[in-house]
Amino acid sequence: MTVRVEIANPEGASLESRALLAACRGALGPALRALPLNRHSLRLSFVVDRIGRMRPRPSGIRCERVRFDGFDAEIVRPANRYRPLQDGAVLYLHGGAFMIGGLETHRPVVAGIAKRTGLAVLSVAYRQYPRTRVDGSVEDCLTAYRWLLRQGVDPGRIVVMGDSAGGFLTFATALRAARRGLPMPAGLVGISPLLDLDVSSVLMHRGPVRDAYLPERSLTGVSRLWTHGPADPALSPMNCDLSPLPATLLIVAEDEVLRSDAEKFAHRLDRVGVPCRLQLWRGQVHAFPALAPAMPESCEALSTIAGFVSTRIARRPVVARIA
């Protein structure tokens, strides 16, 4: 078995993505570097969340709030047809450095996934810093996955996915589910996923590539903030036994700071026999499908994700009862 590595858009970037790249390099990147990821970033979190609430709700969807103990989630479905959860579901875990973002900020990308797959998407507003450490965020995501299983959704008809920090949670949640004896979902999707809380190796091996906006210097010590101390190596998917994981799709910008970890992770999956497809996108920014889901490349990436979901849940269901 070999890792499927693809250059998804060999023809280069669209005008829209070039404009986004320029905006990230000229405005967002400098702003984030001026405001490093630390406890003061909570002010940025407030602003981002407020902007998310001001955005109009995407058309063509219906939303249903789900309440958990300590956090909320939202089921997003296509408005033109209702399919029960038991037909299949996507569990979406949003990004935002474990401290920014939520249901409102990521509703556009979640809506895009729901409309393309025709399935219900459970978007999770897991607890974030300073309410909890990363370990607590993982536990909330596992609670949401267990909830889907208790609703009677066959694990063979669930795909878990997330962007950036949500990509970390995607793999960490699946690995924790395996350790707890829960059945694996049908597949996993990481969009520009963070895979190791110790980011020093990323910065060491990234070579001459320059990320458009992710502030690499501030990433070096930020895991202490996320974990309230030194990061437990066992918490990072990169350091775990990956053999229990299902088939995986990784979507990464060619020039982003987390590319090297995605490549390393893909080869680690391959070594333990887990099918993995790695897509590299030229001229794109970190987590571009979530940041600008209406952009041509984002639409194409979301269609790739929808195809992956369709293929995975079309397999013979695995029946499992969850107590």
UniProtKB/TrEMBL annotation:
<dbReference type="GO" id="GO:0016787">
    <property type="term" value="F:hydrolase activity"/>
</dbReference>
<dbReference type="InterPro" id="IPR013094">
    <property type="entry name" value="AB_hydrolase_3"/>
</dbReference>
<dbReference type="InterPro" id="IPR029058">
    <property type="entry name" value="AB_hydrolase_fold"/>
</dbReference>
<dbReference type="InterPro" id="IPR050300">
    <property type="entry name" value="GDXG_lipolytic_enzyme"/>
</dbReference>
<dbReference type="Pfam" id="PF07859">
    <property type="entry name" value="Abhydrolase_3"/>
</dbReference>
<comment type="similarity">
    <text>Belongs to the 'GDXG' lipolytic enzyme family.</text>
</comment>
<feature type="domain" description="Alpha/beta hydrolase fold-3">
    <location>
        <begin position="90"/>
        <end position="288"/>
    </location>
</feature>
<keyword id="KW-0378">Hydrolase</keyword>
<protein>
    <submittedName>
        <fullName>Alpha/beta hydrolase</fullName>
    </submittedName>
</protein>
